[in-house]
Amino acid sequence: MKKKQDFKVLLISVKEKLTNMGCENPPLGLLNIAGYLVAKDVIPKKNIKIIDTYYDDPITEIRKFKPNLVGISTITPFYLLARKYATIIKNEFPEVKIILGGSHISSDSTVLDLPFDLGVIGEGEETFLEIIEYFQKNFVSREKDLKAIPGIIFRTKKRKTVLTLKRPLITNLDSIPILDWSFLPRARTFFDQTILSRNSYISCKSVSLYTSRGCPYHCTFCAYNNVWGMSKVRFFSTKYFGESIYKWYWEEGVEAFCILDDTFATTKNRVKELIEELRQKQLLGKIYFYKIFIRANLVDEEMSRLLEILGVTSVFIGIESGSQKVLDFLKKKSLRLTEVRKCIKLLGDRDIKVMGSFMFFSPGEGRADIKKTVKFIKWFAKQRNAIDVNVCITTPYPGTEIWEMEETKLLSVDRERYLKLVQIKSDNQQEEIFYLNRLTKEECLKIWRKVVKISSNLEKKWLLIQNKSRYVDKVKSLWNKVGVFLKS
Ligand code: B12
Ligand code: SF4
Hints:
Bound molecules: cobalamin, iron/sulfur cluster
Distance between the termini: 75 Å
Strand order of the largest sheet: 2-1-3-4-5-6-7
Helix content: 40-55%
Number of helices: 16
Largest sheet: 7 strands, mixed
Number of strands: 17
């Protein structure tokens, strides 16, 4: 039995060192969990450490920190890497408990591989708190006790997997403390971000946050509901939002905020309330929001105006397909291409830039559908406010509707093969992924390379504008200096 003051927890965010997938982003889930444990006085702050395999080597860190318990967070594409690390840790430190959490185990909650002692399904704060309290008091776990903790998966002595009762979701999200960035080295939290506004680039300090958990939609490919449940969207209060922004603006000089909500701006009232909160705190007009996830069908004239007032400079939209038939399947008839076009135009009128995301090789997608998507991408890339074409290959994750389909049945039979197929190991890995439609691999690759090219051409266009704008800025500032010199 360890005293509370001596019990140490190491939290590891496992991902590959990929440069173009947001792997450098801080692990918000682990920050939430760490902050929650400290706020509830379960463990002193100095006894929790968060590391990230994008930057750190977990084995070196464990040897230095000597934790009693390790918590690992990962998504399905990086699960095999997480399991590899867990196996090494277990071999070298058999007495250290290893707990797995995050969207992979929350989605694939029927199997708990051997190196892991426990898995946490879904929202982690309350469940992890109970697990820590348990292991602070007990060195060895008893099946009867574990069964009483909702939201976990564990193995019995006879190697039977037990899934305990579902953990109810946190009703008051404000009970989770505001993100405490001091758990991480500064260089990993506040990034320099170039914000594109009125076609000129402004360089600001930026940070990520989120303002809600959940999404009102149920797209067939999305695994979010395994993490947050099929409940209605839960919001952090506007006061919580305002206080977070106020703190980072005044204490850290942050001017740009990336909101990572599953779907931001689900209602106009919510956006109006956020605007009002910022107005009261005298922050409106001083800060920007960029790369926020929104739904095109929710953007009308008023919503685009509200987003502009809030300070949104760019949004990320899941367009997915240029074929209405495929889009109906992917988004369960909740989005029309006419709405997408209208949304892009409306946002363009307010100079809000758009990053469009597209999915290829979905079940039932034929050549004609793909042609329509390529055509749509070309149209999109020509829009004055289109700044990014994000293309991805439809990948079925456990717990999604696509996972249950005939086309994916074979994948679920051979779990190890599946995990290898979806593993993302390099920046170009997507070319290796399987295809759920009936086209040949060669055909798919040809199309894939074509759309990747459109995407990189658009990127080049904006890089050129960025460089030009920097050059003009330099000339202007030089000119001003000459003016000052001449006057003096
Ligand atoms: C924002 C986001 C992104 C952003 C930023 C990612 C980042 N690293 O910060 C971007 C756009 C870059 C992105 C990219 C990708 N993403 Co993403 N992303 C999300 C999104 C919308 C929110 C993630 C988030 O920050 N949530 C907020 C925090 C608080 O939640 P959390 O991390 O899950 O943590 C909670 C619990 O899971 C749990 N928990 C987590 N870890 C641990 C550990 C322990 C020990 C415990 C006890 C508990 C626990 O407790 C936490 C608090 O309650 C989710 C959807 C969702 N809601 O999960 C998809 C999601 C995680 N992404 C997904 C995918 C597939 C990807 C990509 C592979 C897509 C692609 N092909 O490009 C890449 C991978 C890149 C990467 N670096 O991870 C999938 C994962 C599916 C799966 N089965 O694992 C999700 C679920 C969406 C989906 N498609 O269904 N993503
Ligand atoms: S709108 Fe986005 S977050 Fe919501 S279900 Fe669809 S893909 Fe998932």
